[in-house]
Amino acid sequence: MATRLAGSPFLLLLDVDGTLSPIAERPEYAFVPPATQRVVSDLTRMPGTHVALLSGRGARDAHRLVGVGDVWVLGNHGIEVARPNETPVVRPDVAQYADRIAEARERCNAIADSAPGVIVEDKRWTLSVHYRLADRSIVPAVSAHVVDVAEQLGLRLTAGKEILELRPPIDINKGTASLALAETLGALDREASILCAGDDRTDEDAFQLLRAANSRAVTVHVRGAEGERVTAAEFHVSDPDEMRTLLEQIVEQRRIASNGR
């Protein structure tokens, strides 16, 4: 791993919830520890290094949560892209689904109103229905209702950690967004390095496409409370604390290498 992460440009694609931030019971309870904020900030200041937040959250919300400047943000699973310190941009083919997402929001809010513990997270261009706090007995019915909403409105439905997400039916995901950014920044070149880390099933698209495009790309699954599962990632760490330790080691390694040149 050390050899493969010594190149330039160096692109880090970092999921937020469950990777930089511990998983929280509710989205608004999540936080990124100060020590993690510091190491991410350190990375943004290193020569030839680009940090991108790769999140299911809206781009502005992901940026707010991490609280570090000079980062790229791929929000809403890549539907929104924000260059460092700039406003997020949404593709025109996404914007046309705004009315359908708004209708899905109303219907899912109605589902949540009659299902204690179910939370609807409105991310404008996508919608997340969280059932982490709901009684297990109602989850099948809630899931069936959300599936019906997606089918009736022609939206794409994906599943994550105790969450159902509705998105526009277009071929954008964390993998396609990561690959596009890597190409833009020259991170697929022979002398470049890539690290991609995430904890959820939605991160698997990024692991797979990056490794297919560049066999030297380093992919890391953050296990968390879920523990071990099948993943396309080549490496793993136990939780966000171990992920922070790995990032700290990368900073130290690249500082030593830079001073030795």
Characterise this structure:
This protein has 261 residues and is of the alpha/beta class. The protein folds into 2 domains: 10-91 and 172-260, 3-Layer(aba) Sandwich (Rossmann fold); 94-167, Alpha-Beta Plaits. It is 37% helix and 20% strand. It contains 8 helices and 12 strands. It has helices at residues 34-44, 59-66, 92-95, 98-113, 139-153, 174-184, 204-213, 240-260; strands at residues 10-14, 49-54, 72-75, 80-82, 89-90, 119-122, 127-130, 156-160, 163-167, 193-198, 218-222, 235-237. The strands form 2 sheets. It has an 8-stranded mixed beta sheet, sandwiched between helices. Strands 6-7-9-8 form a 4-stranded antiparallel beta sheet, covered by helices on one side. Helix 4 (98-113) runs antiparallel to helix 5 and helix 6 (174-184) packs parallel to helix 7 (204-213).
Total strand count, please? 12
CATH topology of the largest domain, which one? Rossmann fold
Helix run count: 8
One letter per element, helices H and strands E, the order comes to EHEHEEEHHEEHEEHEHEEH
The spatial strand order of the largest sheet comes to 5-4-3-2-1-10-11-12
Tell me the radius of gyration. 18 Å
Fraction in helix? 25-40%
Biggest beta sheet summary? 8 strands, mixed
CATH architecture classification of the largest domain: 3-Layer(aba) Sandwich
Mean pLDDT comes to 93
Contiguous low-pLDDT stretches (5 residues minimum) are none
Overall shape:
globular
CATH top-level class of the largest domain:
Alpha Beta
Strand content: 15-25%
The helix/strand class is alpha/beta
What gap, in angstroms, lies between the N and C termini?
A: 20 Å
Task: Report the CATH superfamily of the largest domain.
Answer: HAD superfamily/HAD-like
